[in-house]
Amino acid sequence: MMSFIETYGGQLLAKTWQHLYISGISLILGVLVAVPLGVALTRTKRLSTVVISIASMLQTIPALALLAL
């Protein structure tokens, strides 16, 4: 293990920071979309019904893909 870290330590650190950066950006974008959408859904019954229906349909897609395997 130590030889791996000695050989690839710099690359491992760079890839770790790259992963954290990408994860952080996606988290921030998700919050920027989800919070205003959540506020809007709590205020509008009709909009909440539409968005929840669409989200439910989108959640079934991965399950259908697994069944196709």
TrEMBL record:
Determine the domain of life of the protein's source: Bacteria
Q: Which InterPro entries match?
A: ABC_transp_perm/SBD (IPR051204), MetI-like (IPR000515), MetI-like_sf (IPR035906)
Q: Which SUPFAM superfamilies does this chain map to?
A: MetI-like
User: What UniProt keywords apply to this chain's record, in alphabetical order?
Assistant: Membrane, Transmembrane, Transmembrane helix, Transport
Q: Which residues form the ABC transmembrane type-1 domain?
A: 16-69
Q: Does the keyword Cell division apply?
A: no
Cellular component annotations (GO), alphabetically ordered: membrane
Note the Gene3D superfamilies from the entry: MetI-like (1.10.3720.10)
Question: Where in or outside the cell?
Answer: Membrane
Q: Where are the transmembrane segments?
A: 20-40, 47-68
Q: How does it sit in the membrane?
A: Multi-pass membrane protein
Give GO terms for biological process. Answer: glycine betaine transport; transmembrane transport
Q: State the name under which the record lists this protein.
A: Osmotically activated L-carnitine/choline ABC transporter, permease protein OpuCB
Specify the species: Lentilactobacillus farraginis DSM 18382 = JCM 14108
Query: Mind giving the lineage of the organism this protein is from?
Result: Bacteria, Bacillati, Bacillota, Bacilli, Lactobacillales
